[in-house]
Each structure stands twice: as C-alpha cells, then as structure tokens.
Amino acid sequence: MANILSVENLTHNWGDIRLFNNLTFGLEEGDKAALIARNGTGKTTLLNILGGKFSADSGLVTWRKDIVTGYLSQNPEFEPEQTVLESLFHSENETAVVVRSYEKAVAENDDTAIQELLPKMEQLNAWDYEERAKQILSQLKIDIFNQPMGQLSGGQVKRVALARVLITNPDFLILDEPTNHLDLDMIEWLEDYLKRSRMTLLMVTHDRYFLDSVCNTIYELHDESLYQYKGNYTYYLEKRAERISQKNQEVERAKNLLRKEQDWMNRQPQARGTKAKYRIDAFYDLKKTAEQSTEEQNLEINIKSARLGKKVINLHHISKSFGDLTLIKDFSYKFARGEKVGIIGKNGSGKSTFLNILTGKLEPDSGEVEPGETLAFGYYRQEGLNLDNSKRVLDVITEIADHIQLGKDQSMSASQFLRYFLFPNEMHNVLVEKLSGGEKKRLYLMTVLMKNPNFLILDEPTNDLDILTLNILEDYLLQFDGCVMVVSHDRYFLDKVTDHLFVLEGNGRIKDFPGNYTDYHGQKKQEAKEQKNTSAPVKDPKKKKPARQQDKNKLTYKEKKELENLEQQIEELENRKKEKETQLNSGTLTGDELLQTSADLGQLMEELESCEMRWLELSEKEG
C-alpha cells in the first residue's frame, strides 16, 4: 500500500501545557484509523493540524500529491441564509468548486469554459453530485433541501456537514466525533458506508462498536506520545493492557536497581569526578524511569446517593402532543428501585419530551405523574449546563458546595473533588472557556453527581466524553443503588448499562422491551427477514416470465466463470483466515509478528467480505 500521509516530529503546546511532543507516524492508502485519548490531551488539536485549520509549533505534515481530503470538524460552520443544498454546493472542496464552475459556464453559454471543465467533471465523477448529495442527506434524515441553515438544530447542522464531506468521496477523510447527533439507524448506515468505502480514514469517536467494526488501526495519545496498535478496538484493549503491565514491570525493576546505584553515587561524593561518566549518566536515566507512575490515573466514582423509598415514580396514562404530532399516547409505568432503563427512538420521536415530563419540567396533556416522597433527580441534559465561560473551574464547583459528601460518611473539599475527576491543581484556576468540549462535559457531570441524586437521568451522556471516562461511568452506573434512565445512541453503553429498553416507535407508542440494544436489534433484523419472506410473491410455475426479463436475469458466460472463481477464492481466503487466527492464538509470536499477523488478518477479512458480497450478487442474479 502507498503512503498517503506522513507526520514527522510534530510538537504543539496549549499555553504552558504540552499536548504532544515529536509525534511521528504515517497512514497508508486504505487504512481506517481511530485516535483515542483522554479529553483535553489534544485529539481535536491534532486533527485540526492535519486538516490544515492551524499550524503546529514544530514538525512536518506531508500529504501525497493530488490527494483530496475531507474534514468533519466538531463544530462546523455555515452561512445561516444559505439553504441546505446551497451550503453543499458552496463548499470549497474541489468537486463542489468544479460543479459550480461548470453550472456557471452552462448558464452563460461559455463553450470554452465548458470544454475545459468537462475532463475535470469526468475525473471527479461529478455529474451526479446533486443526486448523491440528496441521497446522503436523506439517509441522515435531512429531507427539506431548501431550508435555510440558520433554521436547523445543532444536530441537523452536524449531519449536513457530514453529508458535505461524504458526497465528495475524498481519498482521505478526517472525522471528529461523527456519531454525535446521529440516531442508531444513521450510525449503522454510516458504519456500513465507511466499511465498504475504499477511502483512508482517521477519526475520533467514543462509539466502541463503531471502532470495532470499522477501524483496523488504533492510535492512543498518552503522555505527549502516540502509541500505534494494528487492529480494532478489542485488539487495542488487549495490547494496551500488556503495554501498561510491561511499563509497570520496567518501573519496578528500575526502582530496585536504583537503590543499589544510589548507594554507589552516595559513596565518596568528593571523588565523584573520578567515577565513570557513563555510569553517572545511566544513574540519572534510571532515576527518571523509576520516578514514572506505575498506575494510570483512573476516575473512580463512589458518590453517595440519597435514600430512595419503596415508591419511586409512577406514570398513569400520560399523553403528550404538539399540534398534530403525537409523541406519547396513554403510557403507564411504575418504576422500581435499582432498575436501569435505556430509551431509544429516531430523532424527533419524543425522547427529551418524555424525560421532561418525568422530571416535571413539562406537563402531560393528560394522565398523572406521581413521584415518591424521597425522589431526588440528577438530570444530565443533552444541551449541557449553562456554564459561565468567564468563571474559573473551581468556582463552578464551590458555588454548589464547598464539601461533597461521599459514601461511608466521607467527604471531599472542592479541590479534592476536582482532582478526583482528573482536573489537576494547575487547571483549578483555568477559565471554563479554555476547556475542551469533553472537559466541559466532565465538569458538568460533576455538578450533577455531587448533589447526591437517587434517580439519574442521562440524556446523551456519551457525546464528547472520552472512552476512558465512559468506562468508569459505566462501572459506576452498574453499582449505583438508585434508578438510572439513559438516552443514548452509543450501543456499547446501552448494552453494558441497561436492563431493558423503552422503544419510542412513533405515533405515541412506547414499547417496553425486555433486553439490551443488541437483543433488540437482533429481534428487529429477524422480524424484518420474516416479513420479507412472508411478503415475497409466490411464484406460479405455470406463468412464464417475458423473454427479455429472463435474459436480463441470466448470467453471462463471463459472470458464470467469475462465480466459479469466486467460490474457489472464498474457500482459499477462509483457509488463510483460519491459519492467521491459529497463529494469533498460538502464543509463539513476537510483538512485531503479532502486529503484522493482525494486520494481515484484517486485510484478509476485508477481501473475504468483498468476495462474499459479489458472490451473493451473482448468486441472486443466477437464481
């Protein structure tokens, strides 16, 4: 594979904090890589540098010549008066520029310009640009193409921005949190789209199923350095644990050896000038290694929750409509202590409305909401807390409480609580406006939990929180004594945290599904398959198809030979795949061999999937 991006000795600082130092890495054509790091450590900054938004303090970024790149930023901007379609055509990407120029030349009957632009239109496959744009917008649930951008919600703007980069079919695509503001159906569509695409990909996302399904390379940004893992997210977790264990062992060995070397350094200090210089240098290197932390700083949440009585909250025949749009119709439910519910449904199906009725922020049109006497909500809202950007991080916490109650009659000061949530002392006096999006969300989560709720409501908590923080939050929710209700498009999060689902099916219907998201998705696929088989027309053996239709569905000689070759090729690929899997599980490979074998396996699986899809296509045509 040809190299498409080279990064050499990239260094960048944010004020006095160094985000990364001398990063050197590259991506080859067809790589699908993800960047993982804690919030505030420089993920978006690195993407902005690669996307040309601003420059690094030092280092070199080199792209292969004639590469078309697409960049989805975390906060895309559009002209508010432009319509949805106009915003796509007024993009500065090469395809949009050529289409605009061609349409202008046609409108002005400029034959010379038309002749000059025709080869470029062919090269960029730009003839169906508008049709591709409409198809992708429809998949992302944007159907009103002449609506001004200024009238769209933040989530809709993000989806238009995603469509803008996808329709150009770039060689290299950079995506910063692409799954935010997408519902589950859209995420699965995007996942499938990127898996089948040949474009090279670098993205930041918290969606772990998405990472597992799409990516073949993981980069972890940690302690100003970049670590590469040639495999998907599951492989990364295994190898990351091995790396940390190995580092901890090295630190322990260095500490043991340091004691002996310290004795040697302390002996006859007046004669140190006669000591071997190489051994003195080695001593200081050893000391540096021994002083490294042997444990990663983890966020452990063990905050006290208020006592929850037997009666939690009961809903009696509640209904809610806005005009002709019915979101909730005659829904009743009695919550029990300790249950954990996920809420899923398409965007606009009423998820936030349901939560606002539950918490008393919104009255139902009919029915009754009956809360228990001891009920104390903690509501993490999708839009987030309205933090004052001019305030210091410490002030945000002390305005709520100077001391925070924990379990077992323990408490923490505001400063201790901030450190507990991975805000070191040097960040306590930082203004809120200087925080990253993820750090602001983590600060907001603190303000919700520190009030000791016994019924937690989390509306899209996974947006902007890093994966490492999400893992800890999931563990906390699993041992939380009170009730939990989660609205999320993160399938992994839903699977790990929830016991059952409220599915908002539309037209006011809410279905209580007894299982997690994977269970629900599997059942929906099975139902769709059965429905397809049931609705398929019964073939009449006496009725003959028209001759032209028979010819259309008949395989050509060339296609028959291709089908035969594919069957043999699939068998060979299956055998090679089994060999690679056996090698990976043998325990005899070195570190380098493991990386290479994992990469080979990923490529084999891609080839196998491509062959199987073509085989299915030809088989259906043959049948």
TrEMBL record:
What SUPFAM superfamilies is this protein classified in?
A: P-loop containing nucleoside triphosphate hydrolases
Q: GO MF annotations for this entry?
A: ATP binding; ATP hydrolysis activity; DNA binding; rRNA binding; tRNA binding
Per the record, the domain of life is: Bacteria
Sorted alphabetically, the keyword list is: ATP-binding, Cytoplasm, Hydrolase, Nucleotide-binding, Protein biosynthesis, Repeat, RNA-binding, rRNA-binding, Translation regulation, tRNA-binding
Pfam families, A to Z: ABC_tran, ABC_tran_CTD, ABC_tran_Xtn
* An individual GO BP term: regulation of translation
Q: Where is the composition biased (Basic and acidic residues)?
A: 521-532, 548-564, 573-582
- Positions of the ABC transporter domain: 5-248, 313-531
**Bias (Polar residues):** 583-600
- Extract the ranges annotated as region (Disordered): 515-600
InterPro entries assigned to the protein according to its UniProt record, in alphabetical order: AAA+_ATPase, ABC_tran_C, ABC_tran_Xtn, ABC_transporter-like_ATP-bd, ABCF_ATPase, P-loop_NTPase, Val-tRNA_synth_C_sf
Q: Is Metal-binding included in the keywords of this UniProt record? A: no
So what family is this one in?
Belongs to the ABC transporter superfamily. ABCF family. Translational throttle EttA subfamily.
Q: What is this protein called?
A: ATP-binding cassette subfamily F protein uup
Q: Which organism is it from?
A: Marinilabilia salmonicolor
